[in-house]
Amino acid sequence: MNSPSPTGNPEPEPAGIEADHPRLVALLMDGDSGAAMVAARRLRTATEAGPIRVVEALEAAMELMSNKCTSEQFNLLEIMLTGRAAMAVARDTFPEGTAPSTKGTVVIATPEGDVHDLGKNITRMVLSAKGFRVVDCGKDCPVAVMVKAVAREEAFALLVSGLISPVVPLVRQLRPRLRESGLAAVRLVAGGAALKQCTAEALNVDHVASDAFDCARYLEAAKEGRP
Question: Which of 21, 116, 160, 213 is the most buried (most CB within 10 A)?
Answer without folding.
Answer: 160
